[in-house]
Amino acid sequence: MKKLMNDPRAVTEQAVAGFVRAHGARLRRVGTGYGVARVDPLLPGTVAVIGGGGSGHEPLHVGFVGGGALAGAVPGEIFSAPTPESILEVVQATHTGAGVLFVVGNYSGDRFNFELAAERCAELGIPARLVVVSDDVGLGSLIPADRRRGIAGMLVALKILGAAAERGDDLETLVAIGDRLNAGLASMGVGLRAGTSPLADVASFDLGEDEMEVGIGIHGELGRDRVPRGRADEIAELLLTEILGELRATPVDTLLVFVNGMGGTPPGELALFFDSVARDLEGRGFAVGRALVGAYVTALDMQGVSVSIARLDPELLSLWDAPLDTPVLRAP
């Protein structure tokens, strides 16, 4: 697989450096690792919301550092958790004394390192808590609910929690909001072609031209089924049946619908697929309350798509609609 790079071992360093150079009015490098923080400091008394995890999912997390979202981001190497030391460097660069909230996906390495960083924060007198996102329902009953992975729903969580922090919510309130959001958030994806790591030069798995992998993760993991490749309408029906069944959503719910590209799917195809999703939902009696379409939580250059749906109560809806100013997303 052809890639635009220099030294494969320096891909993360150069990618972070380039992103910060391109958005220097908003972002600054922090510490000796790959940490990034806002240029404009948080207001005194504001909880610092920090996201992090392995690289390879760009623009998550670095692209969502800014007003109404993250105070800082801590990427690791490709598909590897950041070190506790790197996490602490971002904490020291962003916290105001009101505490730190880490927003992470449900992966053992990420949880372990961020929990260790939270313990070190406590030793320094900095309150720190985690919100662990576990929105992936793609593996169904193959794994227990507490082992579900965090995938595209991480973007929804960091947006809502960043907005809540910016309005002045304290740390415990933020944790409660995150847990409530996670309980009403479900995602599932399909892969049409596997991604290729810069360090491996081979696809993470093989798929025939007429096959698709159902229930894929964002680290090149296989899903639960390999089936004949379907049309966009058929894929939408498959994913929505699983997601809505898991959420037990009703037509009176306000739904945020997020169609996410996995890195190798063109924007036009994502728009086409969102049309399939919206028509399917309408046929079931649901309305799209809020929508987001784009490649925001990727898996290197994987070709594929995921759908995330969140049930938004009035408070969560207000937080989703709150102003946002990041390199990748801005609203209004």
From TrEMBL:
SUPFAM superfamilies: DAK1/DegV-like
GO biological process terms on file: glycerol catabolic process
Annotated GO CC locations: cytosol
Keyword terms: Kinase, Transferase
One Gene Ontology MF term: glycerone kinase activity
Domain DhaK: 7-329
Protein's UniProt name: Dihydroxyacetone kinase subunit DhaK
Source species of the chain: Mycetocola lacteus
Lineage: Bacteria, Bacillati, Actinomycetota, Actinomycetes, Micrococcales
